[in-house]
Amino acid sequence: MTLHSNEVGLQTARTLIEGGSKVTIEQPTVRVVPVREEDIPALIRLAREIWFEHYPAIITIEQIEYMLGQRYTPQIIAEQLDSERAWWDKLLVDGNFVAFTSYELGKTLDTMKLDKLYVHARMRGRGYGSLLIRHVESKALERGCTRLELQVNKHNRGAIEMYQRYGFTIARAAVFDIGGGFVMDDYVLSKGVRDRG
Ligand SMILES: CC(C)(COP(=O)(O)OP(=O)(O)OC[C@H]1O[C@@H](n2cnc3c(N)ncnc32)[C@H](O)[C@@H]1OP(=O)(O)O)[C@@H](O)C(=O)NCCC(=O)NCCS
Predict the structure, then answer these.
(1) Are 102 and 112 in contact (CB under 8 A)?
(2) 163 alpha carbon to ligand 1 midpoint, in Å?
(3) Ligand 1 centroid vs 166 CA: distance in angstroms?
(4) Domain ranges across the chain
(5) What is the atom index within ligand 1 of the atom nearest the CA of 125?
(6) Which CATH superfamily is domain 8-192 in?
(7) Which atom of ligand 1 lies closest to the CA of 127?
(8) Which of 65, 88, 90, 130 could form a disulfide with 102, with the two C-beta atoms 3.0–4.6 Å apart?
(9) Helices (H), strands (E): how many in the chain?
(10) Is 90 exceeded by the pLDDT of residue 22?
(11) How far is the CA of 125 from the centre of ligand 1 (A)?
(12) How many beta carbons lie within 10 A of that of residue 193, not counting itself?
């Protein structure tokens, strides 16, 4: 497998002994690569699928549509891809686009904001979310940031547990008015990041 310098790759094989003979199980090839402009339609489809599967338990359908419209239009994503302060990366499993993250420079020089982290429901629990968190941590360090910050809905319990497992702590609760009569009722979580050496 050839990897470009900005890719994270993971391919492992497990060898089991079954009935006295060796069986090698190929694990999938997992790559994290930058989102390109031509990926935007697939990215929006994946985001909509995940949002409509995950968020109805947390916010209204009207709010989901409103927030998707604020965050996932071709124009907004293309502008961010062109910017020098926000990045989108996709996670491919055997070439299939199953997860993505985006991150941007924070309000202070030392902080990177982990803005989006989404794994398709059928691909959860396989370490892809944590792989993306570690990926964003290394991108933060590359850009001289020593803190990661994120917002998560107060009722998004699974995601909060996952972030806490990876060292994030709740810095504060905050209600953000996002217009259209909607608010985001969030926790702000943060974590110090340092080189693993
Ligand atoms: C949150 C999310 C990204 C996690 O992705 P994932 O690929 O399932 O996560 P991983 O398999 O890497 O799991 C990482 C760890 O978090 C834990 N974890 C993951 N989801 C969890 C959940 N719902 N509840 C409790 N713990 C959870 C796992 O047990 C694992 O711990 P371990 O490393 O000790 O085994 C994924 O569930 C998702 O896309 N959720 C819907 C969208 C969302 O809420 N995104 C966050 C927006 S702020």
Answers:
(1) no
(2) 8
(3) 10
(4) 8-192
(5) 11
(6) Gcn5-related N-acetyltransferase (GNAT) (3.40.630.30)
(7) 12
(8) 88
(9) 5, 10
(10) no
(11) 6
(12) 22
